[in-house]
Amino acid sequence: MTATTSLTHQDIPLVFSAEVADALHAGRPVVALESNVITHGLPYPDNAATARKVEEAVRAGGSVPATIAVESGKVVVGMTDADIDRFASTPGIPKVSSRDMPVVLAQGRMGALTVASSVVAAELAGIPFFSSAGIGGVHRGADRTMDVSSDLIQFTRSKVAVVCAGAKKILDLGLTLEYLETQCVPVVSYRSDDFPAFYCESSGFRSPMRLDDDEVIARSVENHWALGNNSSFLITTPVRPEEAIDSDEVDAAITEAMAAADRDGIRGQAITKYLMRAVDAATQGRSSKANMAVLVSTAEVGGRLAAAHARLRA
Ligand code: PSU
Ligand code: MN
Predict the structure, then answer these.
(1) Is the CB of 136 under 6 A from ligand 1?
(2) Phi and psi torsions of 240, nearest 5°
(3) pLDDT at 4
């Protein structure tokens, strides 16, 4: 019989930018960022410009940004400006969620990481904080379609603190919160009573918990892991009121977009992008502007909370 060895996480090549490697080595705070939002969120060159602004916001919060993607069989932890521009301007880069990652790595293709695959990569890279404005969730009509984002399932498996502005109203946010509760994933709203809805200030749902103090949040995250949970800890921060988009306007646009998606037979992986485009068209681009703003403001809070967490560990 021949002995076989299987690959472990040490066999997944990670390529760190010098800045991220130095920061991790010195115990300075780093915030992981997703790349799917670059390739599948906004059109070029707004996507590249926004990705850079998001990185600047993480720095303004006191942390080092690490935007993550896969390319040439490696996980890139800390994309350079040139990497970001290449990803932003290359059409057809696949959206890579956790389950797609092993194949895309083996094929050596370029892949844009969702929240789910980004938290996988962040944990491998030893980065405890991740920030993205909008997480995936339970889709409306999931009782029929069974469309539940892998983001939620991955949160039950990865020890990463996730800072976000909640999730878009294209999802069923009530069921999304139920799922997170069932799966023992803490959800804390930072300096707000409500669970936010991406570029809308409130989802209409109260948040399970509110915390106003950075240090208490950092301590709570550590406690979650110290209690033996190998899962994520969600922290939400709402869009700034002056940058928010009106809830009623978005609701009307979503109802229309969902009917159109049904007519066009759009489902599965393609639905999020389709609905976002339709909402943007219906709001004459106002949702895109709010989208860019919330990406930036969320990243700043992510930078601030990761810094508080690093101080705690120091
Ligand atoms: N939610 C948003 N905006 C987004 C996404 C989700 O409000 O851009 C993207 C993120 O990359 C997220 C992914 O991880 O879509 C989830 O897709 P799905 O529902 O197919 O799992
Ligand atoms: Mn899905």
Answers:
(1) yes
(2) -65, 140
(3) 61
Positions annotated as catalytic residues are 34, 168
What distance in Å separates the CA atoms of residue 51 and residue 33, rounded to the nearest whole number?
Answer: 9
Q: What is the pTM of this model?
A: 0.95
The whole-number pLDDT of residue 273 equals 84
- Mutational pocket test of ligand 1: of 93, 164, 272, the residue with most ligand atoms within 8 Å of the beta carbon: 272
CB of 134 closer than 6 A to ligand 1?
Answer: yes
Residues of the chain with pLDDT under 50: 1
| C-alpha 107 to ligand 1 mean position (Å) | 23
- Could you report the predicted ipTM of this complex, rounded to two decimals? 0.96
Q: Which amino acid does the sequence have at 112? A: A
Please tell me the distance between residue 26's alpha carbon and the centre of ligand 1 in angstroms: 32
- How many Cβ atoms are within 10 Å of 218's Cβ, its own excluded? 22
